[in-house]
Amino acid sequence: MARIALDAMGGDFAPSAPVAGALLALGELDHSHRIQLVGIPGVIRQTLDEALAGAYAGHAQHLDRLEIVEASDVIEMSEKPSAVLRGKPNSSMHVGLKLQVDGLSDAFVSSGNTGAQMAISSLVLRLHPGLSRPAISTFFPTARQPIVVVDSGANVDCSPQELVQFARLGAVYAEDILGRTNPVVGLLSIGEEPEKGSAAVKEAHQLLRQSGLNFQGNVEGRDLPVGGSDRGPIDVVVCDGFVGNALLKFYEAVAPMLINMVARHAGLSKEQLVGAFKQLDYSEQGGAPLLGVRGVSIISHGKSNPRAIMNAIKVGLRAVETRMNDHIGRRLAENGQQGTAA
Amino acid sequence: MARIALDAMGGDFAPSAPVAGALLALGELDHSHRIQLVGIPGVIRQTLDEALAGAYAGHAQHLDRLEIVEASDVIEMSEKPSAVLRGKPNSSMHVGLKLQVDGLSDAFVSSGNTGAQMAISSLVLRLHPGLSRPAISTFFPTARQPIVVVDSGANVDCSPQELVQFARLGAVYAEDILGRTNPVVGLLSIGEEPEKGSAAVKEAHQLLRQSGLNFQGNVEGRDLPVGGSDRGPIDVVVCDGFVGNALLKFYEAVAPMLINMVARHAGLSKEQLVGAFKQLDYSEQGGAPLLGVRGVSIISHGKSNPRAIMNAIKVGLRAVETRMNDHIGRRLAENGQQGTAA
User: Fold this and answer.
1) Are B7 and B92 in contact (CB under 8 A)?
2) Is the Cβ–Cβ distance between B295 and B108 less than 8 Å?
């Protein structure tokens, strides 16, 4: 039995998408699980009523597993993390995350302001000892099986030590969420030779060789869609959040462009091809855990629809069930001082 | 009338691919142009004989516009640029580039060791005043028209001033090679707000606003396949060579992966779909000029086939005909001290 707190006020389509996503999830998940909708109660109740009177009429039977938790402040998508961190202490993010600290919830899911979620998660849940930043990891579909790209947007200007931290976090994520044994880690660079790359990447390469991780060496941009290099499959690709973010957004946009191109060429309708690209659809992924915080905080796309939010809730549930957070803590502790200095 | 020097010894398929590419180009280009095959004469002659006895039998008529220029050293694909820079003074790269300095040639094209070509081009041709590094710009096909990504692999750990230099070089390239008027420049970052990005990118943003360039602001990974942001089309995307190289290699690999995925889904053969991806095929691009050197040095893919080499020769020809190099020199001089300090 898990209790998942869901930010009802965050995301481009809040509160309707989170509320509908909660109803979808309650219908689909094992009935031992509960959802806590966090936000302004009047707004949530009205949205719930509308959903139950409309497309979600069949979901009223699940309401006994849905709880409303009051949070009076709303964080807008455009607000600066530094401003909301202290300025809106009763935001749905603060309140939703605080539930975990108080032992009242097991995970938090939001499609709201990502920077704010990172900052508030770090403040409220705190980081595991030895970490200097949390990281976002994302699945990239490949010709083989999905790979984990970490960091995919949280951090820029990363030190070599932080890149090693990302590798450790990504490896546990690949084990717990993707079920990979002894995950193979690649370091993104501009050539496979250890002496290729930026100063930080070259130093990270040397640190990773001594990290105890299953390090394959440098990988290149071309290895990501393939899911491996000519030295074998990879499970985790480590990079600075700047390049990770650029690649992720590029990947999300290139699929629809190629659908159009192929459809035009082959005389097919877009609809005939969309199915082939389903695994490139972020709503199928749902969300990504913020790695390194002492708890579960799932970051979902700002444009998440109800289905994406349901899938993000499932990611949160899987993180709870595999005890990923404890696993990360143990793994970091085992590796003592390695890769911990910022 | 232009004289194009072609490295007969560089590339994974040398000397056969460059020799065949030269024959293809001689047949297709205006007959006022000449090609200079640079390398070991005996090897070149034997390869020519084989080509003319085989698939290129019809091309013997063009031999009067083909010259062989002797160069005794061969640079291997795996050699370090620093080692060959001084250690192989009679390489086909040195000799081929020196022809321009001596007024005997107008452009140099190679599919050999890229790092060596950059280093030797910078040494032999020298850089325009005020530049600290040359840059590689590459076309990215988009849903609109192709965009120029600069730097796409030559330089890592770039300063804000170098990013501004790349923008100036890329803008002239877009004007001369793509025919764009007053090209729109975007700076790749992780969000469109000026305060998003790495330290170097944030400072470059401020410098670009005062650069006199047609600067649209930050763009994101998703804007590349689209060919623009929601603020309009873009012509040039500026980035560090690390992220440019990662994106380029990712793009080259993702198309074949998607072809397979779509073909499987739609029950089509790969061959039925390949045509749709033709514009993603690097052999259609041929090559990219090394920007910033005082001359023309075209970098072609190491795996170039004869067709790719012919297209690289065409890129060189266009750079000669538009006088792109003089244009770059003038533009940099006009902008005086702006963006010149490294």
Assistant:
1) yes
2) yes
* Bridge partners, residue B188, by sequence: B219
Q: How many CA atoms lie within 13 A of B10 on its CB side?
A: 31
Domain boundaries, chain A: 1-131+292-326+335-339, 135-283
CA dist., res. B117 & res. A180, Å (int) = 42
Per DSSP bridges, beta strands B184-188 and B107-110 are unpaired
- Virtual torsion, Cα B331, B337, B339, B342, nearest 10 deg: 120
Give me the pLDDT at residue B281, please. 61
Query: Does the beta carbon of B212 lie under 8 angstroms from any beta carbon of chain A?
Result: no
Residue in B closest to A152 by C-alpha: B190
Third-level CATH fold of B133-282: Isopropylmalate Dehydrogenase (3.40.718)
Element (H, E) at A119: helix A114-125
Confirm or reject CATH 3.40.718.10 for domain B1-131+292-324, answering yes or no.
yes
The token duo for A272 is: 């005939």
Handedness of CA B333, B161, B249, A263 (dihedral sign): negative
Angstrom CA distances, A110 to A52, A75, A116, A151, stand at 22, 11, 10, 19
Alpha-carbon distances, residue A41 vs A14, A44, A48, A62 (angstroms): 13, 5, 10, 18
Tell me the pLDDT tens digit for each residue of B26-60: 999 999 999 999 999 999 999 999 999 999 998 99
pTM: 0.87
Residue of B nearest to A228 (CA): B253
Q: Can you tell me the distance from the alpha carbon of A289 to that of A319, in angstroms, rounded to the nearest whole number?
A: 8
- Asked whether the predicted pLDDT for residue B116 surpasses 60, the reply is yes
Write out the H or E segment, with its range, that includes residue A183: none
Q: Which of B143, B156, B275 sits opposite A190 (nearest CB)?
A: B156
Report the residue from B220, B252, B255 with minimal CB separation from A249.
Answer: B220
Cβ atoms within 10 A of the Cβ of B90, count? 13
* B248: amino acid identity, one letter: L
Put simply, whether B63 touches A (Cβ < 8 Å) is no
Strand pairing report for A66-70 and A34-39: parallel
Q: Where are the beta strands (DSSP E) in A106-261?
A: 107-110, 135-140, 147-150, 184-188, 214-219, 228-229, 232-233, 236-238
Tell whether A252 lies on the interface with B, counting CB pairs under 8 A. yes
Could you name the CATH architecture of A135-283? 3-Layer(aba) Sandwich (3.40)
For residue range A118-177, list pLDDT tens digits in order.
Answer: 999 999 999 999 898 999 988 888 888 889 999 987 789 999 999 999 999 999 999 988
Q: Does the beta-carbon distance from B221 to A153 stay under 8 Å? A: no
Closest residue to A199, CB basis, from B157, B243, B246? B157
B57 at the A interface (CB within 8 A)? no
Of A188, A226, A257, the CB nearest to B257: A226
B133-282 shares the fold of B1-131+292-324: yes
Weakest mean pLDDT among A202-206, B95-99, B108-112, B172-176: B172-176
Does the distance separating the beta carbons of A156 and B253 come in below 8 Å?
Answer: no
Task: Tell me which residue of A304, A258, A147, A232 sits closest to B265, measured CA to CA.
Answer: A258
CA nearest to A80 within chain B = B195
Instruction: Supply the CATH classification number for the domain A1-131+292-326+335-339.
Output: 3.40.718.10
User: Could you read off the pLDDT of B281-305 as tens digits, one per residue?
Assistant: 656 678 889 999 999 999 998 889 9
